[in-house]
Amino acid sequence: MGQKTPSAKPYISVCIIDDNKSYSNSLKIILEQDNRIRIHSEYSTGYSFIDSLKSPFQPDVCLIDVILNDLSGIECAKRVKEKHPDIHIVVMTSYPDAKNFAAARDLGADYIEKGPRAEAFLNKIITTAVASKTERLISLQMDDYLKFEHLDLISELEKAKNRLSLLTESQLSALKLRISGKSEKEIAEILKVNPGTAHTHVWRALEKLQLPDLLHYLFGHSKNE
């Protein structure tokens, strides 16, 4: 009782908190092209948005600029999460930095760099976050490998992690030992099996996990070089 169930709604309610009216309008136009998303309201200050949460309405997602006229976007996000932990937060910034990245991570919020690349993918970030209740931390400048076109890699890794439950105890133990740098001979000695069995445990564990091919992402999805 009392828990929000965004997936049961016909749309995702989104609020935009940004003192740049022009940017808010551009985001609104982009997001409303997705019929799963509805912009409920826009706010130019953090306090006006926080005050609005006293009403029965609560958005599913709020997009908060990291710099507002009255308080920082991180502080606004913190106050929202304290009162309404189910609201998914996306912190937006023109200038990514380590301090705000870490603060967003601690809040379980998304962290994205403003710009055409982010905006083109923002609807997927919003809908995925609401559907799966997982947060993604994304800064194009801070980690060059974590590009928006690689969000599907993150999703594949999450699926692989969920498949860990499919491994037998022996397969999981063998895989952990292999990851720690043990040879198959050493694994066999530790698990008290022959090397062939140790090899089979590792091989079957990897087969069950269905790990994505990292070379596919390093060299591009559609390049045939």
How does this model look, in words?
- The protein is of the alpha/beta class.
- It folds into 2 domains: 6-146, Rossmann fold (3-Layer(aba) Sandwich); 160-218, Arc Repressor Mutant, subunit A (Orthogonal Bundle), CATH 1.10.10.
- The chain has 10 helices and 5 strands, in the order E-H-E-H-E-H-E-H-E-H-H-H-H-H-H.
- It has helices at residues 21-31, 46-52, 73-83, 98-107, 116-132, 151-162, 169-179, 184-191, 195-209, 214-218, and strands at residues 12-17, 37-43, 61-65, 88-93, 110-113.
- It has a 5-stranded parallel β-sheet with strand order 2-1-3-4-5, with helices on both faces.
- Helix 3 (73-83) links the parallel strand 3 (61-65) and strand 4 (88-93).
- Helix 7 packs across helix 8 and helix 7 packs across helix 9.
- The N and C termini lie far apart (55 Å).
- The model is unreliable at 1-7, 134-148 and 221-225 (pLDDT under 50).
Give the strand line-up of the largest sheet: 2-1-3-4-5
Low-confidence stretches: 1-7, 134-148, 221-225
Strand content: 5-15%
Mean pLDDT comes to 80
Number of domains: 2
Judged by helices, strands and strand pairing, the structural class is alpha/beta
* SS elements, strand count: 5
Q: What would the CATH topology of the largest domain be?
A: Rossmann fold
Dominant shape:
elongated
State the major sheet: 5 strands, parallel
Order of helices and strands: EHEHEHEHEHHHHHH
Distance between the termini: 55 Å
The CATH homologous superfamily of the largest domain is named Response regulator
Number of helices in the DSSP assignment: 10
The share of residues in helices is 40-55%
What's the CATH architecture of the largest domain?
Answer: 3-Layer(aba) Sandwich
Our Rg estimate from Cα atoms comes to 22 Å
